[in-house]
Design goal:
Layout lengths: L3 E4 L5 H12 L9 H8 L11 E5 L2 E15 L2 E13 L8 H15 L4 E5 L11 E2 L5 E2 L9 E5 L10 E4 L11 H11 L16
Parallel strand pairs: 7-9
Antiparallel strand pairs: 1-2, 2-3, 3-4, 3-9, 5-8, 6-8
Helix pairs in contact: 1-2
């Protein structure tokens, strides 16, 4: 199977959202909201299109990684960093190394574009394979001062994170609160634009 990694065009947006829905549907909660997050990212001022990538085979989009600018608030001021999410692959094409290929190629693009570091909340058994370390390694916490295994960082430039200890903040416009009734109402309305999929309560869901 030949996989092409390329930058994202506006014409790709809807198909990426559909693929993201398939990737996350019933995974973390009944249904999902990740495709709604992707839709909002396109218009986010901090979206970094220059290093966000998709994977395709035979002109079918099978994976994506999207980056946004974030910040670490240090004693000296704000230090710009990147985060990504979602990084996902269509269920029919998972376990073929596509996600890793997207990650490695986009990280190299970020380095070439002089970005300093990446902070994410992700699967703690996956990202360390690519050099990610828990954020406490760098003296960085969430806004409330907490840390946990899924909160990880990667230095694109030497000592970029460890020399900028502080608290990590993402754009407020990307908050996803599934306990907020208005947010869930907007999600339900938004989801009507996409192929129907049945919501199920399954073991392992945590949201």
């Amino acid at each position: 199977m030949d996989i092409t990694i390329r930058k994202i065009n506006i014409e790709d947006h809807y198909n990426i959202e559909c693929m993201t829905k398939r990737a996350f549907w019933n995974l973390n909660m009944p249904g999902c909201d990740e495709h709604y997050l992707v839709h909002r990212i396109w218009n986010e001022p901090d979206y970094v299109s220059s290093i966000s990538l998709l994977a395709e085979t035979e002109e079918i989009i099978v994976g994506v990684i999207l980056y946004t600018k974030c910040k670490v608030v240090t004693e000296r001021g704000e230090f710009p960093v990147l985060t990504f999410g979602p990084l996902c692959v269509d269920p029919e094409y998972q376990n073929k190394g596509i996600g890793g290929k997207l990650l490695v190629e986009s990280m190299e693009l970020a380095r070439q574009n002089n970005y300093k570091g990446i902070l994410i909340c992700g699967v703690p058994t996956y990202y360390p394979k690519f050099g990610f370390k828990t954020a406490d390694t760098f003296g960085i916490t969430m806004p409330d001062g907490s840390n946990f295994d899924a909160f990880m960082g990667y230095e694109l430039q030497e000592n970029a994170l460890s020399e900028n200890k502080g608290k990590f903040y993402e754009p407020e416009s990307l908050d996803c609160d599934i306990h907020d009734e208005e947010y869930m109402r907007r999600l339900e309305e938004f989801d009507k634009n996409y192929p129907y999929m049945e919501k199920k309560v399954l073991p392992g869901q945590w949201r």
